[in-house]
Design brief:
By secondary structure, the chain is α/β, with parallel strands linked by helices. The protein is built from 17 helices and 13 strands. α1 packs across α5, α1 runs parallel beside α11 and α7 crosses α17. The protein binds adenosine-5'-diphosphate (ADP) and magnesium ion.
């Protein structure tokens, strides 16, 4: 359905013993029309043909950190292959000794499990020898909004950010998908007035059934062309889905869209780490109150510690009121408390936000040039795109993304 935008193809050779890893790689590259993927069951077999390896654009090899033989086999393969492609190693552990050993072997990059698909795609695109454009094209730009406190405004900001991204491309709208991962109290579908169509219970018994066709059935489209993945709410049901289902869903979405925006729940689930590791920008949304700032700071530290600084959370303080001579927190207070991660303060404007939500439209449509959109635009869009995308959104019913084919 999705048409390849370019003709150059990347040849990705993978050696993996871990079946889950192999499956996840297959999901990342296997569905792509830009990539020829070959997965060889690991550990690295002695008889792997160096000529085959040499043809690859990039090789991805899983090595068990405690198995010296696997390191020797990888070293030999790289040494024996004339014109060896860059190798990305995936290990189950990582420390200085392993890092040194991999450097001696001359791998181009190393990732530690669990590896999110977009993290792997990024690593491959970074190291791959030409042509790399086809690999890079697989990379969606992924933004996640995570609440530090209840009612911080995550859904509001995620919806508006997705709309800004959708309209950031001038005439051609980039394929943009908003994914509501707050399965219990999701509000994206309500805010945009679309019917939620994701049925995770149907996918759960057989996650591998989830393919592009099924994904299409479970997508909803806003009149603007924004794709929305949202499940009907189950407020009385507190359940967590099999992380494989969620991971599979995210893999598919990141391969099929240019921009993906996640509305994250406050509760930490078994799949949360994976989502955060896979995103390009992680925004933590807090509120300008003393406890709000404290909880925001705590969440930033907890994430940095938990994910080994592999993601860099950025803090947005929402509903900020700037009053020069009135009591309340000032911008300098926020800066002092949050420090470097503070990237933006979004103004408080309840009348504007409420009207947009009630009508299922963007803030820009309600009041063009409003200050909330202005701040978000600075945060989300690269400089050259910030002036664009102010067209009214009414009445444009476009089937995007999947209609790109
Ligand atoms: N910048 C803002 N100014 C005024 N009201 C806001 C702003 N952002 C969000 N709100 C309001 O705050 C409430 C919670 O927003 P919501 O996006 O649903 O938060 P969350 O998803 O974090 O629970 C809603 O009533 C919304 O209208
Ligand atoms: Mg919400």
């Amino acid at each position: 359905m999705l048409s390849p935008k370019r003709t150059d193809r990347a040849d990705v050779l993978v050696v993996a013993a871990d079946e889950d890893l192999a499956r996840s790689i297959e999901m990342t590259f296997g569905v792509s029309q830009h990539v020829d993927l070959e997965i060889v069951p690991g550990p690295l077999p002695a008889g792997l043909d160096p000529a085959r390896v040499a043809r690859a654009t990039v090789a991805v090899v899983e090595v068990a950190a405690q198995d010296a033989d696997q390191f020797i086999a990888l070293e030999r393969l790289i040494a024996d292959t004339i014109d060896c492609p860059p190798v990305v190693a995936i290990t189950d552990e990582f420390d200085q000794t392993i890092a040194r050993r991999l450097m001696q072997i001359r791998v181009a990059d190393c990732l530690q499990k669990p590896v999110s698909p977009s993290e792997l795609a990024r690593a491959c695109a970074r190291v791959a020898r030409k042509p790399t454009a086809s690999l890079r094209e697989e990379e969606a730009q992924i933004f996640a909004f995570l609440p530090a406190v209840g009612g911080a405004g995550v859904t509001t900001l995620a919806v508006q950010a997705a709309m800004l991204l959708l309209h950031s491309g001038g005439k051609v709208k980039p394929a943009t998908c908003l994914v509501d991962l707050d399965f219990q109290h999701g509000a994206c579908a309500d805010y945009l007035d679309v019917e939620p169509r994701l049925n995770l219970s149907e996918i759960e018994p057989q996650p591998e059934r989830l393919d592009r066709q099924l994904l299409e059935v479970m997508l909803s489209y806003h009149a603007s062309g924004l794709a929305v993945i949202a499940a009907p709410n189950c407020p009385a049901e507190m359940r967590s889905f099999d992380p494989r289902v969620v991971t599979r869903l995210l893999d598919l979405v990141s391969v099929n869209f240019d921009y993906v925006v996640f509305d994250m729940p406050r509760t930490w689930f078994s799949w949360t780490d994976n989502v955060l590791l896979g995103c390009n920008k992680l925004f933590i949304v807090g509120q300008p109150t003393v406890p709000g700032l404290r909880q925001t700071k705590q969440l930033v530290s907890a994430i940095c510690e938990r994910l080994d600084e592999r993601v860099k959370p950025q803090v947005i303080i929402n509903r900020f009121v700037q009053k020069l001579f009135a009591p309340g927190l000032r911008y300098s207070d926020l800066q002092r408390t949050i420090g470097e991660p503070l990237v933006s303060c979004i103004p408080n404007d309840y009348a504007l936000v409420r009207e947009a939500i009630d009508r299922g439209v963007t803030l820009e449509e309600v009041r063009p040039g409003n200050r909330i959109t202005l701040q978000l635009r600075k945060l989300i869009l690269p400089q050259e795109k910030q002036a664009r995308g102010r067209a009214p959104l009414v009445g444009k019913r476009l089937r995007l993304s999947f209609a790109r084919s």
